[in-house]
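Batch 3, record 17
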Amino acid sequence: MVDYVTIWGISSRDISWVFAQLHLNLAAFVIAVPTFALIVEIIGFKTGDERYDNLAKDFARLITISLSLTSILGAIFLFVIIVLYPKFFSYFSQIFGGTMVFYAMLFFGEFIAAYLYYYGWDRLKNKKLLHIFIGFFLNSFGIAIMFVANAWVTFMMMPSGVKETGELYSLWEAINNPGWWPLNVHRLIANLAFGGAIVAAYAASNFLSAENEKEREYYDWMGYVGNFIAVSALIPLPFAGYWFGLEIYKYDQQMGITLMGGVLSWLWILQAIIIGVIFLGINYYLWIGMERIEGAERYRKYVPALLLVMTICFIIWFTPHSLVASLEEARKIGATLHPILSVLGIMTAKNTVVNIMILSTFLSFIIYRRSGKIPITSWARLGNFIFFSIIAVVAGYIIFLGIRGYFVETTVRINYSMYQVLAVLFVFIVCTPLDVAIYRKSNVIGSIKWGHMPPRSQYMLIVIAVSFTWLMGLMGFARSSSRLNWHVYKIMEDTSHSAFVPSLGYAAKIVSLITIIFFIMIGVIFFLTKMLEHRQEEKFKFIKE
Amino acid sequence: MEVKTGEKRTIRIFNPFFISGFLLVFIYLVLKFGIHPPIPSSLIAMYMGIIIFAIILYISSSESIFQEFLHPINLFLTLDRLKVPRTVIGIFIPLILGFWSYQMALPKYEPPAGLRTIHPAPPDEISVKDEKIVLSKANNPFRGDEVEKYKKEGWEIYFSRCMPCHGDNLNGNGHWAKRINPIPINFRDPGTIAMMPESFIFWRVAKGGMGLPDEGAPWDSAMPVWEHDLSAEEIWKVVLFIYEETGFQPKKWQ
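Prediction for the assembled complex:
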C-alpha cells in the first residue's frame, strides 16, 4: 500500500484542508441553530409570545437542508482522507474504528430528530412539551457528534492512550486526551457565536430583499436576535481558548511555543484585527439601531467617547511585538524591537485592552436598552450612580492590573489576567440585574421601530458573519499547523511533500477561498429555505402587536 | 463661519467631511513625524486603516451626520460653478493612482521587508560538546551564593566576545552592528531576554544563527555559533552576566 496518493498534481493537503474546513463550518452552523431554536422556542412557550415560536420555527427551517449538506461534505471529506492518505487512515481507524461506528449511529439519530423537530412543529402545537423534548434530543445528538469528532482531532495533537510506537492501550485515554474538554467547550461556545452571526446574516439578506414593511420589521428583529446571540457567545470565547492553549503548553512546551511565539505568532495579529473588526461592527450595529428608537438622542453624545475608547484599544490590541520593517527603517529604529511598540505588543497590554473593549460593548448595549425609557423608580438616581461607579472602578482596576503586569513575574501576570476577566464577569453579573431593576418601572418614551434601519446596518451584519467565518478558518489552520510535520504529533510523521507549515499568506488565500465557497453554499441554503416557506402570512402575524 | 455658495447652499466649516479629513492628516503626521524612533510604514498603514474604518463607522452611524458628510461632496459634484475644479480633480485622481501603481511596480534594490520570528520554538534537547542538555530542565549552574564572582567572569567573556555586536551598553549597538542585518539583539529591551527562560538564551548562544530551526528562516542571522569556542560553563556565565547586568529576571518555563 502506498503512503500517499496525489491526484492531478493538486496538493492533497489543500484538498483535505478545504473539505475539512467547509464541513466544519457547516457542522458548526447545524449544531448551533438547533440550540437557539430550542431556547427561543422555550422562551415562546414560557411567555406565550407567538412571535418567539415563529422565530424558533424559522431557525428550525434552516436545519434540515444544512444538515444534508453537512453530511454530504463530511462524506466527501472522509473519502478524500481514505483515498489520499491511506496509511494515515488505516492507522487512525485501528485506533478509532469503534468510535466511527458510534459516530455514524449518532448521525442517524440526528437526522431523525431533525426531521421530527421541524416537520412536527405544527402537529405538536398542542403538545409543546413533547416537541421541546424532541428538540432537546436533537441538540444532544448534535453535541455528541461534535464531541466524538473533537476526540479525533485533539488526539492528533495530543495523542494519549498509545505507546510511543503508536499502539493503542486505552481507547478511553485516547478519547479523553488533555485537549478534548477544552476543545469541546471552546467549540460549543464558538458554534453559538458563529451560528448567531450566520443567522443574523440570513436575516440581513432577507431584510435587504424584503418586499414590504412587515417583512422588514420581522427580519430586522431576527437580525437583532441573531447578533445578540453572537455577541453573548463571543464574550466568553477567549477564556475557553485560553484554557485550550494552557493545556497545549502543559502537554508539550514546544507545541505551545510554536503556536504562540513561534512561526504562528503573526497569525494572532491577524486574529486580533478580525476580532477588532467584529467588535467595532457589533457596536456600530447597536449605534445605528439607536436611530430607530425615539429618545435615543439623549445617549447619542456617548457614542464618540465609546468609539474613541474602542479604537484606541483596537490599535493597541493588534500592535505586533516584532515588526515588519524594511532594512532602512530597521536601521533607524536601531534595534529589532521598537521601544514604544514593544511595550504595547506584549500580553499584559493586550489582555487589558480586550477587557476594556468588552466593557465598552457592554455599555453600548446598556445605552441601547435604555434608549426609549425613562426610569421612574424612586431610587433610580442612586441606582445609576452605583451602576456607573461599579463600571468605573472595574475599568480602573483592569487598567491598574495591566500596568502592574509590566513589573511582575509571568506566573503572577497570568493570575492578573484571570482577575481582569473575573472583574468583567463581575460587572455582567451585578450590573445587568441592577439595570433591569432600575428600569423595572419606567416611562416608555419611544418604542423600537423595527424595520427602520438603513441598509448599511444590514451589510454590517453580513460583514460580521464573513469575519467570523474567516476567523474560524484561520484558527483551524493554527490548530492544525501546531502539529508541524506530524499527522499524529510525535507518533506518526507526515512524510508527504506537503508536510511543511504553509506560509501565513498562503494560508490566508486558502482560508479566503473556503470562506467564499462557504458563503455560496449558505446562499444556496438560504434560497432553498425560502422556497420551503409556505405560509408567509402566518409568520408575520405578530407584527400587529 | 459659513461659506456662501452660488445657489445659496451653505457648508459649515465644521462639516464632518472637513473635520475627518483634517483629523486623518493630523494623525498621520503625528504617527509619521511625532514618534521617535520612527515606526515602520507598514505599521503606520495598518494604524491609518483602522482609523479610517473607525471614522467611517462614526459618520455613518447617524443618518444626520451622514447626510451632512455627503453634503459637500454632493455640492462639489453638482454645482455648475465648480465645473473647472471638478474636471481637474477628475483628471488628477486617475493620474495619481497611475503614478502610485508605477511606483509599486518599479524594481527595488532593497531587501524585501521581512517577517521574522525572533523567538522560534527551541528543540527539546540539544547537545553541546557531546553533553546532552534538556532545555526545559536545565538551570544556570552559577546561580547561587557567588553570583557576583561569576558575573565578573561572564563580564570578561562578554567584553572579549560579544561587545562588538551587542554593544558595551548591552543595547545591541556595538560598532559592527551597523553592518549587520538582522541587527544584534538589544538585551535591554524588555521584549528580548527578559521574555525568555535562561536555557533558551543558552541555546541561542551555543547554537547561534546556524542553529535556528526551520521557522527561524531565512537563516541570515549573524549571531555566531559559540559552542566551538566557549565551554558550556562559559556560556552559562555570560548568560548570567547579561541578565544580571540588565537587571532582568529570566522567565521560567511554564
